Fold:
Amino acid sequence: MFEHIREDLRRVGPTGGQRLRMILFAPGVWATLSYRYRRWVYVTRPPQPFRFVLNLIGSLVQAWTDVATNIQIPASARVGPGLLIAHTGYIVLSATTVMGRHCTLTQGVTIGHAGGGGASLSGSPTIGDRVYVGPGSALIGPIKVGDDALIGVGAIVTSDVPPSAVMAGNPARVISLKGSFALIAYPGMETDPQRNQGIAEHSSDGAMKGEG
Structure:
């Protein structure tokens, strides 16, 4: 839990003072810290009577966070370290969402399961690393979103997203392979081998397709 929180906070500011201000005044950070605590209780399942007390605290924290931030991240969702909630306002993740490292969520995002269409349509998105999810967008159903993808403003995504794809529209479609590299920043990204590999692959694809 603490390693994940440390990485989350590294994304909100380069100094301890900036991070403290964000802890005190940024609803997105409140929601992230609330989720990390509740996820820790959910995964570790401490023995009784500690579990009852910790679950009670978690329920109270979740209720306060839901009201104060309008951000709902269930403890059963699996979210990697380095989560940044850049803006607040009605963000909802389904209970079975899986999300990778260093992702960014913005206001009005829905990441949910598809229902009512049989087993083939049930399930929730699995989102890769360094994915930027833009304002008012929705990712629905058992889709896979590749690393370094960018989900554009208001995009409705119901099918798989290739790595480094930029998605726009309803239904969303790939409009470029420029990815999220300009929007996702975190300490150590310059030497992150996975990110650099994605940039190299993007540059190679762009050269072959004549992209500038």
